[in-house]
Amino acid sequence: MEKIGSDRLLWGTDMPFQNRFCIYRQSRRWIEAHCDFLDAGNIADIMGGTAARVLDLNS
Question: In this model, does residue 18 exceed pLDDT 70?
Answer without folding.
Answer: no
